[in-house]
Amino acid sequence: MKILGISGSARTPELSGTYKLVKTILEACGHEYDIISLRGKKICGCTACLGCVKDNVCKQPDDMESLRDKIIEADAYVIGSPNYFSTINAITHALLERLYQFRHREADLLWGKLAIAVGVGGSSGTCCCDEIEKFMSYSFIETIAKVSAQGAPSCYICGYGETCKVGALVMVHGEGYKIRKEDIPDVSKQPEAVNAAVEAGKLMAQRLSKGHNRKDVALKMQKLVMEKFREST
Ligand SMILES: Cc1cc2nc3c(=O)[nH]c(=O)nc-3n(C[C@H](O)[C@H](O)[C@H](O)COP(=O)(O)O)c2cc1C
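Above: the input record for the complex with flavin mononucleotide. Below: its predicted structure, written as tokens.
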């Protein structure tokens, strides 16, 4: 079984809480994996050109082309995004929009696969996990776990954090706060987040080794999505 990890963070892997959690989950899972950082990649949103309708291949010439085969080949996904303005960031959104290419005319390239959603924010990443889960469900992929943690807002390193009246530091610590290295949130120093990531990885391994039946999962997800869609219209 092969797992594809995708970190939507714009930061380097060393600085990114999202990347670290995605990697922790992949390692705990114990299956062969590939991890991709979207940092520096050029991925546009879906343009609704419908060029993918006939053959389920998106025709936009950008970095999504090289990811397409990896997405198809993977048996399961770990997808993470930083929290930007209380939702997933633009590049993660763009990538997930482009899964539209796999949805047409009963193409079951992704149906019934499993996913784990990761979200990291200066406050929390839960909104990102929920958003990723929603995208997954449209491809009839089951999100089996969500892992959220607190990452480091840029205000700790931007140079103005201590005096800025509208930044994260005044919100978290109040006025007059002086930056201390030990206060800077780091997901790898949060036992709850690391444990949740390890447990999520183990759950993925369990689900995949128990004779994972994609057809059953696809049917369950299809029913769920259709019901939700009907309710919301
Ligand atoms: C443009 C931008 C908007 C952000 N908006 C939010 C926000 O609304 N809520 C929040 O909790 N954190 C917000 N943050 C902080 C990031 O979520 C935080 O730095 C997180 O650690 C980023 O994940 P990463 O370390 O994987 O890059 C924002 C950061 C940026 C750059």
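Notes for the reader.
Residues 9, 11, 16-18, 82-86, 120-123, 151-154 surround flavin mononucleotide (CB under 6 Å).
The radius of gyration is 19 Å.
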